[in-house]
Structure formats: structure tokens, C-alpha cells
Design a protein that fits this description.
345 residues; 10 strands; globular; 45% helix; disordered C terminus; alpha/beta; two-stranded antiparallel sheet
Length: 345
């Protein structure tokens, strides 16, 4: 007999109750304010996070860092993710984040990108658990007792298969006050290759006493979320690259996990509307240059769910201004490619 289906609401992180178990991951180069708002408007986002924020850049008021941390009333609840090591001013950066709109502060312990890990941040923290636990304790002490703001951590399984530290580290982080753990089910060495290891996420879930564990990796549709939760017992899922293809994936996950109903993808014309809304939000919060910069890359992700739209992608990539992108979208709104019925993930 199959086990009874679990119906999940959003987890409670510290004193913050989330309304959905589907969370938007902090993705470098993607999770700016326009994209966070776009995902929220599609529905089902329990929590969204900023891009990775460098503690030194935040505190000295770097325009780039401030742009990454930009938020607004529609961008709630918000998590700001900071990165660095024990020698960096992460406690001060955490206080800055709380003062500038963060309802939750997350410590990046899982980024495999060289420019982060080579600065002794990101997933390099997995190589020195003692130092990492001390750092986490200092950040918790800096914000949680005075403001009630929960501090969370995002980890990987370990640096490589010889250093699988996630379960033990998660337990120690809980002991020093970390309010939730997100675990990407790969090692740093794997980066984004191979399949996510659900057994590793399950080990983290078994290692903690009471804090939520959020699974991350290879969530490209609602059923992927269901399978991860069934296999690991995790309390929620965090979606990264899957949201670049489907900003509406959070509503689909929430529908399946909380109501047992799998919602279909929106019609082709609605997907075009979603891309145009992304354009509008970039213009609202950024500028014309960013429209071209962001949508030239984003159209490749969107196109993965839209069938044969190579001519549309080419028009967006070669556009010289936002109005040309808008016209291309308008021209394609009523055009349903013959392959659209067989959309690939």
C-alpha cells in the first residue's frame, strides 16, 4: 500500500511563518528585485532571497551591492543572503540586512563558484566546520536576540565525497541557534552536474532536532518537489534554475503540496505575458540597459518551456532597445508553435 500523501503548508522559520513550502533560491546573476517580484506575482512563493551579498561591499555602500539588496513593499517576505568567512564583518552585514528589509538572514555555505569560494566563503566553509560554527554563532548573536530575526544557512553535502559533512554540520548549526538549514544535494566538486542526492538531504533532516530542513536541487516541476519531500522528509523545497524556466513553478508546487492538485503550465500567450511583465519590472526598478542585459540571457531559459521559438529568441537577443523586445513579444503572442504541445523541461 502506498504511503498517505503529505499535504504541506509553509514551514515556520524562527518566528516567521511562511505561507507556502516553495522558496526561491538565491541565484547569482538572476535573483534581482524584478525577477523576485515576477515570481511572487505568479503566486506560491513562500520566501524569496536576494543574490549573494558581499559583507564588505554592503557596509561600504557599493552601488552594485546596494542594487542587489534593493527591495520594496511587494518583495515580502524577504531573505538576504550574505557570504564571507570568520575574518569578514558578517555580523555587521547581518545587522545591515535587518535594518534594510530582511525578515530572514541567510549565510551562504554552499556556493561552488570560484570567485566566492576562493575568498574563503561559500562552500569552502564546509572544509572547516569548527570555524564555520563559530561564525554562525556570532551572526546569530548579532541579530536574533535583539531583533528576533532568524538566521539560516544554505549548505551542500560537503566539498567532495571524502568530506561529507552536511549532517554533522547541520546538527551543530542548530545547536548555536541557526533556525533552518537549506541543503543542496550535491558536493562542491559536483557543482551542478549529476543528479541531486536525495539520501544526503534525508541524512540532514534526520540529524536535526526541530528546525526545518529545505531541500534544494533539480526541482524543475511540481512532481520533482513532491518526490524530494517523499524521499527525504524535508519540510519545504527551494527552487533555483527551475524558476528561470518557469517563474510560475511556485504556484504549481504550492498547489500540489498543499492541495494535492497539480496545476498545468499556463497557455503560450500567458508565458509571453510573463516575459513582458519581466521587461516592465526591469524598467520600473532598473533601466533600459538592464532590460537588454537580463532578457537576452533570460529568453534562453524561458524558451525551454515554449517549444520551437528560435526566431523569437533571436529577435530578443539582437534587439537594440526594450521597445524592439516588446514588439517581438507582441508579434508572437498569438503564435503557438507546433511543438508547443511537447514542451521539454
Amino acid at each position: 500500500m502506498a504511503p498517505p500523501e503529505r499535504h504541506l503548508e509553509g514551514p515556520c522559520i524562527g518566528g516567521v511563518q511562511l505561507h507556502s513550502p516553495a522558496l526561491l533560491a538565491p541565484m547569482a546573476g538572476h535573483c534581482d528585485l524584478p525577477f523576485r517580484r515576477l515570481c511572487r506575482e505568479q503566486g506560491g512563493v513562500g520566501l524569496a532571497s536576494t543574490d549573494l551579498l558581499n559583507s564588505h561591499s554592503l557596509l561600504r555602500g557599493s552601488p552594485r551591492a546596494l542594487a542587489l539588496a534593493e527591495t520594496c513593499e511587494e518583495d515580502r517576505p524577504l531573505c538576504m543572503q550574505i557570504y564571507g568567512n570568520e575574518q569578514d564583518p558578517l555580523p555587521d552585514a547581518a545587522r545591515w540586512a535587518v535594518d534594510h528589509g530582511a525578515l530572514i538572514v541567510d549565510i551562504n555555505m554552499g556556493c561552488p563558484v570560484d570567485k566566492v569560494a576562493k575568498k574563503n566563503g561559500g562552500s569552502l566553509l564546509l572544509c572547516d566546520p569548527d570555524s564555520t560554527v563559530r561564525l554562525a554563532a556570532r551572526i546569530v548573536e548579532a541579530v536574533t536576540p535583539t531583533t528576533g530575526t532568524p538566521v539560516t544557512a544554505k549548505i551542500r553535502l560537503g566539498w567532495d565525497d571524502r568530506q561529507l559533512v552536511a549532517a554533522e554540520l547541520a546538527s551543530r548549526l542548530e545547536d548555536v541557534g541557526i533556525a533552518a538549514i537549506t541543503v543542496h544535494g550535491r558536493t562542491t566538486e559536483m557543482r551542478f552536474k549529476g543528479s541531486v542526492r536525495l539520501d544526503g538531504i534525508a541524512e540532514v533532516k534526520a540529524a536535526v532536532d526541530s528546525i526545518p530542513v529545505i531541500g534544494n536541487g533539480d526541482i524543475n516541476c511540481a512532481m520533482d518537489a513532491r518526490r524530494m519531500i517523499d524521499a527525504t522528509g524535508c519540510d519545504a523545497v527551494m527552487v533555483g534554475r527551475g524558476a528561470l524556466r518557469r517563474p510560475w513553478i511556485f504556484q504549481q508546487i504550492q498547489s500540489l503540496l498543499t492541495h494535492g492538485v497539480e496545476a498545468p503550465d499556463p497557455p503560450f500567450a500567458s508565458r509571453i505575458d510573463c516575459i513582458e511583465r519581466h521587461l516592465d519590472l526591469i524598467l520600473e526598478h532598473q533601466n533600459e540597459h538592464m532590460v537588454l542585459h537580463r532578457l537576452r540571457s533570460a529568453i534562453s531559459w524561458y524558451g525551454k518551456t515554449m517549444g520551437h521559438v528560435k526566431p523569437l529568441k533571436e529577435r530578443v537577443r539582437t534587439a537594440r532597445c526594450s521597445s524592439e523586445i516588446r514588439q517581438a513579444l507582441h508579434d508572437w503572442r498569438s503564435h503557438v508553435p507546433s511543438e508547443a504541445a511537447a514542451i521539454s523541461i
